[in-house]
Design goal:
The complex is a heterodimer of chains A (473) and B (202). With 473 residues, chain A is of the alpha/beta class. Chain A contains 16 helices and 19 strands. Chain A has a 5-stranded parallel β-sheet, sandwiched between helices. In chain A, strands 17-16-15-18-19 form a 5-stranded parallel β-sheet. In chain A, strands 11-10-9-12 form a 4-stranded parallel β-sheet. In chain A, helix 2 crosses helix 3, helix 6 runs parallel beside helix 8 and helix 12 packs parallel to helix 15. In chain B, the strands form 3 sheets. In chain B, strands 1-8-9-10 form a 4-stranded antiparallel β-sheet, with no helix packed on it. In chain B, strands 2-5-6-7 form a 4-stranded parallel β-sheet. Chain B has 202 residues and is α/β, with parallel strands linked by helices. Chain B folds into 2 domains: 166 residues, Aconitase, domain 4 (Alpha-Beta Barrel), CATH 3.20.19; 29 residues, no CATH class. In chain B, a hairpin with a 5-residue loop joins strand 9 and strand 10. In chain B, 32% of the residues lie in helices and 17% in strands. Classes of the chains: A alpha/beta (473), B alpha/beta (202). Chains A and B meet through strand 1, strand 2, helix 2, helix 3 and helix 5 of A and helix 4, helix 7 and helix 8 of B.
Chain lengths: 473, 202
């Protein structure tokens, strides 16, 4: 019978059918970070339970670590140091490898894991972090869990999982210049709602997905959770294989040949049945940016803020009114041209080398507008080093951006750094929730090129004009 | 884990769609590597007009009679979306919430509830809306064994829940302990898996 990619991955990992649509799944890799992994390790130790395969678990310090140059364990987040030190001690006690502060491989867990070849096609991979779905971009079945489930996965190398419904989203056609994976996923969420993927595992397919780089596929999958999906993934192809080959933890030699043979079947069979299919015409996608406090509050950058008077129902109208008040916007107002206070490029969504290159192409020979605080945080120490090797850091610095050490940084506020109350920020991150980036901070989610173009204009800007007119050195 | 069998209590309406776990427990309220003492930070940005000094916002539902300390929340669709932080569930539990009724939940949040003795109860949106409309001092009675919600005006609503989740809550099971009983099956699977995918273990 024809099977979907998710069904194939599922059956490869099914240890036992527990009945009622629930299976015991084998887990190949467990990733942890100091924010939520610390308590999973602590809980296990308190219960006197061992980690079954410490060599298949990995810790990244990313959430709480400072990203200011010259950092150590000290952090601006109150109590943050304890998370770092307790995680380090617990991981060492359990024999789990750490990508720690001072190691140039350190970085955001969803950037580091693919970069190191820890995430690979065909694997199951979990982390107590909702953006674990990012790694589905490689053709892995990767999903976010809670700390208790992380402890379960560490102790048993399995998880009890309900079979998800299956959705396929076809992105067809050619993306216009200046439009990328971030715009694709924001466009999808705006069209179908932040709950649109609830209960589904989503395969992203179609000619536009094939045309995306592997890194851009990770951006696409990253925000599957913002669509309420259980996870998202893309079938591995020749691009994926080329991207994975030679990475430190990827198989080598004979094992590589075996892996290639094993991955050949990782596609959805013709005729396989999905519970739902959506087709998106990519030629019609514009640079997309959020106006409100949910990722579904997204519009073409040329759009007008909605009027709650025209909302679908009373509940939606109330949510829109709340969002407009929080964001300091009026119904019908144009998004483009809104003055901004901050610009942020980073996070597990958009902090890879290709993201930094795209932003740098806009920033080259230009300067951030007066009064705008602009920050770039590479996703890992290796991304930072690679960017510096090709001189990108100089472009960011010359343009007036801060150039940081890697980590999650100002994607969220935990009592440390923030842009400030009422400040308007264009950000390449994934969540525009109230107070996410700081008490009262107004976050507009967008692609790295839109962030760069807006930083230069000092206002929310359409990057397409600058993409078409690079400044030559 | 604490069992959940029956619960009778006041239900507080917080009927907004897409309430995220950042709102349930802001990141800055997660101060220690601990599950304890998070109740005070629950909904901090909505509950306090001055967060640092814990000055209550009188407009927030849980600061108003009769909803203060309500053990049941009546929530909107996709409740608990966003961050995986289990601290959101630990905060609710610490405050005294034992059941959240909503049209749908964020998947990770829903799983976290079940692992901490909180019932994530799914009802169709119109039924939740009707409960919100009737919310007041009269308690709701929830029976997980019978899978019913009784309202004070005499209506009975039935709900469905995954059998594994129901059992976990009713029995207060230790999920790791249950799976560890299957260790022989896991070991057998591992052996065969290794043979099928040798490259993973090279």
């Amino acid at each position: 019978m024809a099977k979907t990619l998710v069904e194939k991955l599922w059956s490869r990992h099914c240890v036992a059918d527990l009945g009622d649509g629930t299976d015991l799944l084998y887990i190949d890799r467990v990733l942890l970070h100091e924010r939520t992994g610390s308590i999973a390790l602590k809980g296990l130790a308190e219960q006197g339970r061992a980690v079954r395969h410490p060599d298949r678990a990995f810790v990244c310090m990313d959430h709480i670590v400072d990203t200011r140059p010259g950092r150590g364990d000290e952090t601006l987040m109150p109590g943050g140091e304890a998370f770092i030190r307790e995680t380090r001690a617990a991981a060492n006690a359990a024999g789990i490898r750490i990508f720690d502060i001072g190691d140039n491989r350190q970085g955001i867990v969803h950037v580091v894991s693919p970069e190191q070849g820890i995430a690979l096609p065909g694997l199951t991979l979990v982390c107590p972090d909702s953006h674990t779905c990012t790694q589905g971009g490689l053709g892995a079945l990767a999903w976010g869990i809670g700390s208790s489930e992380a402890a379960h996965a560490l102790a048993t190398q399995t998880l009890v999982v309900r079979r998800p419904r299956q959705m396929r989203v076809w992105f067809e056609g050619e993306l216009p210049p200046g439009v990328g994976a971030k715009d694709m996923i924001l466009h999808l969420i705006a069209a179908h709602g932040a709950g649109g993927g609830s209960g589904y595992a989503i395969e992203f397919a179609g000619s536009a997905v094939s045309a995306l780089s592997v890194e851009a596929r990770m951006t696409l999958c990253n925000m599957a959770v913002e669509f309420a999906a259980w996870t998202g993934l893309c079938a591995p192809d020749a691009k994926t294989i080329a991207w994975v080959e030679g990475r430190p933890f990827a198989p080598k030699g004979m094992a590589w040949a075996q892996a290639l043979a094993d991955w050949a079947d990782l596609v959805t069979d013709a005729g396989a049945i999905f519970d739902k299919e959506i087709v998106v015409d990519c030629a019609s996608i514009a640079p997309t940016i959020t106006w409100g406090t949910s990722p579904q509050h997204a519009l073409p950058v040329t759009g007008l803020v909605p009027d709650p008077a025209h909302a679908a129902d009373a509940n939606a109208a109330e949510a829109q009114r709340r969002a407009l008040t929080y964001m300091g916007l009026e119904p019908g107002q144009a998004l483009a041209g809104l003055p901004i206070d901050g610009a942020f490029i980073g996070s597990c969504t958009n902090s890879r080398l290709s993201d930094l290159r795209a932003a740098a192409a806009i920033l080259k020979g230009r300067h951030v507008a007066p009064g705008v605080r602009a920050i770039c945080v590479p996703g890992s120490g290796l991304v930072k080093a690679a960017a510096e090797a090709e001189g990108l850091h100089q472009i960011f610095l010359d343009a007036g951006f801060e150039w940081r050490e890697s980590g999650c940084s100002m994607c969220f506020f935990a009592g440390g750094e923030s842009f400030g109350k009422g400040e308007r920020v264009v950000t390449s991150t994934n969540r525009n929730f109230e107070n996410r980036q700081g008490p009262g901070t107004r976050s507009h989610l967008a692609s790295p090129v839109t962030v760069a173009a807006s930083a230069i204009a000092g206002r929310i800007a359409d990057a397409r004009a600058l993409v078409a007119q690079p400044v030559e050195a | 884990m604490e069992k959940f069998i029956r619960l009778t209590g006041i239900a507080a309406p917080l009927f907004r769609a897409n309430v995220d776990t950042d709102a349930i427990i802001p990141s800055r309220e997660m101060k220690r590597v601990s599950k304890e003492g998070l109740g005070e930070g629950m909904f901090a940005d909505w509950r306090y007009s001055d967060v640092a000094n814990r000055v209550e916002n009188p407009d927030f539902v849980l600061n108003r009679a009769p909803f203060r300390q309500a053990p049941i929340l009546l929530a909107g669709a996709n409740f608990g979306c966003g961050s995986s932080r289990e601290h959101a569930v630990w905060a609710l539990k610490d405050y005294g919430v034992r059941c959240v009724i909503a049209p749908s939940f964020g998947a990770i949040f829903q799983g976290n509830c079940v692992r901490n003795g909180i019932l994530p109860l799914v009802l169709p949106e119109p039924e939740v809306a009707a409960l919100v409309e009737a919310a007041g001092p009269a308690p709701l009675a929830i029976d997980l064994d019978g899978q019913t919600v009784h309202s004070a005006d005499g209506r009975t609503l039935s709900f469905s829940i995954a059998p594994a989740d129901r059992e976990m809550l009713l029995e207060g099971l230790d999920a790791i302990g249950v799976t560890l009983k299957r260790l022989p099956a896991i070991a057998e699977f591992e052996g065969a898996y290794r043979t099928r995918h040798p490259w993973m273990f090279a």
